[in-house]
Write a structure and sequence with these properties.
The chain is of the alpha+beta class. It has helices at residues 7-13, 22-26, 31-40, 78-81, 88-97, 101-110, 116-121, 135-141, 144-163, 179-185, and strands at 2-6, 50-57, 63-72. It has ten helices and three strands; from the N terminus they run βαααββααααααα.
Amino acid sequence: MSVVMSFRDLLSVVPEFQGKTEIDLLHPKMDLTMRECLAQVGFDVNEPIDYVANNHRDLKGNVGVGFRAVGVIDPYNREFLNSRLADNFHRMSAAGRVGDYSLAYELSKLMCIGSPMRMMEDDGAGCVEPEDLTDIQQQWWVNDQFEMISAQMAALTDILYDIRQDAYDEYGKKKPLGWEHFESSNPVMVD
């Protein structure tokens, strides 16, 4: 399961980020600090973490276009999983990642979502086709704000690529945050 964190939330709660902007957090020189912060909020920092520009709701309930970090939950981070930041979906996902399927199943029953295996078997579960939307919901898709939000997201994505153009290796695989620090600390031995 993915875990996400808004850059707005990081800026508001992390003392090291005071006076910085969302754009500042994108820079590779911030990778080690970002890794530490994201690890504290449940990210598995040994897996790739993506930065994405999108329209989202932060922890304060404010909706806006900005950057979010998206990664995989760390199933061994008990401090996070026992905190109020983790919800039952995080706990169920962590249990599944470490092979504790009975706990994952019990959590799914408590959340009234049924069997996790059944959820995966359902063809198209959770998918909504545009023709299935009500008239009011369809109006949201053509809302005049849609074009403005799309333009903002495209502009932020361009900035993201300009700053983090080295995010992928020569094979197209996503590099983990702070990869240059790990590469330089592991010199290649030449005979």
